[in-house]
Amino acid sequence: MIKDPIDAVITWVDGKDPLHKKKLAACLGQLNIQTESAHPTRFNEVGEFEFCIASLLRFAPWLRKIFIVTDNQTPSFWDQIQKSDFADKFELVDHQKIFKGYEDVLPTFNSRSIFTLLWRIPELSEQYIYLDDDFILLNPLSPEDFFFDHKMMLRGRWELQQKYTITRKLKWLKSGSKIIPRAGNRRGQAFAAEKAGYKRKYFRAPHTPHPQLVSLQQKFYRNNPEEVLNNIKYKFRSEQQFVPTALTTHLALKNNKTQVVASNSTMRLKMDKISTLRLKLSLWFADKSQKKYLFGCFQSLDMASQKNKQILINWLTNRIGTLSKILE
């Protein structure tokens, strides 16, 4: 039995939903902009979410609850879950619930805005793991892979900050373009470090599931309410935002609530760009090396060739099993 419960939180959106498309188009039209963060396929998923859920049930059965945060949507497999023995383990959380008091910024298409308020999920455990819906566990894990003695197990490394430069933004303004450049993850992490008091360096986390502590988030945002407003007001990801998961990391570092365990444990594949040969080699190596990769991040699977998509789905099915099978 787990002495201190650990939850998982996943943010999910069905980009093919007509209502979502309508909201997105209306927002872009109202702002009179285009943005790389609102690419037509950015919010699409073609089965990877089911493998994400299946992997949590198979490889992290010790999780207390799995919260799925979404905008008035329901996953296609939800009825299956509700009819299974795992029904009590899952909960859908609508944006309206965590944005209570800030409804004027909705709808939002900005993951950073949503991350900022995840700690407001009712009955969320003190220790929780945040992961995107395209993250998949690849091996059996233990609670100690994420938390030990109330400390967050970090994956990443320290780097010197590259101070923010407005050159890119000035170039964009000078061109008169209405296309807003996509906000960089490194800059967002470094900005978070600054918020926590780090001026010369930041702890750079790779694409990985992130352990988080609710108490650190509550204390920071309640003492700095302006930071909430400043970080959730953008409809789309902005270079003016910090990465909320990175803020928690740096607050934990400040409070001696961390331990660095590895530089990277994620196999990250950009499925829209990878060749078939490289995909096969990557998957072969993941099988051969066994514990080297704890997680997989398979981005833009909807844009992959049909051949590569099927190769990956077959591999995931063999490695994890289908959600339907696990729910039986």
From TrEMBL:
Biological classification of the source: Bacteria, Pseudomonadati, Bacteroidota, Bacteroidia, Marinilabiliales
Family annotation (Pfam families): Stealth_CR1, Stealth_CR2
Protein name: Stealth protein CR1, conserved region 1
Molecular function via GO: transferase activity, transferring phosphorus-containing groups
Source organism, top-level taxon: Bacteria
Keywords: Exopolysaccharide synthesis, Transferase
Stealth protein CR1 conserved region domain segment(s): 5-31
Species in which this protein is naturally found: Alkalitalea saponilacus
One BP term from GO: polysaccharide biosynthetic process
Domain Stealth protein CR2 conserved region: residue ranges: 42-151
Entry's family note: Belongs to the stealth family.
